[in-house]
What we know:
The chain is α/β, with parallel strands linked by helices. It has helices at 3-18, 33-42, 64-67, 69-80, 90-97, 104-121, and strands at residues 21-26, 52-53, 82-88, 126-129, 134-135, 145-146, 157-162, 169-176, 185-191, 194-195. It has one domain: P-loop containing nucleotide triphosphate hydrolases (Rossmann fold, 3-Layer(aba) Sandwich), CATH 3.40.50.300. Helix 1 packs across helix 2 (33-42) and helix 4 (69-80) runs parallel beside helix 6.
Amino acid sequence: MGKTRLSYQLAVSAIAHYGGNILIYDFDRSLNKQLLLALGKRFNVPDILNRVYVPKYSLLQNQDFFLTIPSQVQYMITSHDVRAIVFDTITVARKMLWPGRENLAEAQQKMGSVINRVKAMLTDQIAILNIQVMQRPDQMGKVEYIGGPTVGHAVEMFMFKPSPQEENRRLLIAYEVSYLAGGLSTTFTICNEGIC
């Protein structure tokens, strides 16, 4: 909880400051127009829904759509002044296209290639990738976080952890970020207008 709100807020605040438009790959089908409108109001981007592009696709039933993402992004950057790209949630694509542990190596190679090709074309744009972290159900009540290795070779990573004190608070921890010391953290609150 909180990944979509944080990524939308980063994207909307970026175009509020620098102009341009947003491209959202809504893999988990959670596009929240009300949240975008609230963020547009908060960051003084009144025409926010006209500045957000969401590609249509058929439930990722084959890999063709995913593998052409870099060319889609390049086209949107050059023809539609896209400055922020949100992949929400990219691990949904992994689960649908390369299910099971037996396909992990292929998923890492293909997803890493797509992500690295997108990274290589970014100049004054940002790309935000959300991943899901699952709790193992077999630990007899013990919480153990797994997931994320699919994109670990290609992205700088932060991790959310729930804050035990309050339901709407989350802890964001630097996990493998080259420009930050590991373990740095910040706490934020999820609210109706994004992140408070």
